[in-house]
Amino acid sequence: MRIEGTSNIHDWQCESPLILGSLQVSQNFPVEPGQAVNPAKVDIKGEASVRVLSLKSKNKDGTPYEDKMDEVMWEHLKAQTNPVIVFRPTDLVLKEAAKSKDVPYVFDAKGDLAVSGVTNSISFPVSVLPLGDKDKKCKITGTVTLKMTDYKVEPPSPKFLPIHTGDEIKILFTWMVAPKAAAAAAK
Question: Per the confidence metrics, is the pTM higher than 0.85?
Answer without folding.
Answer: yes
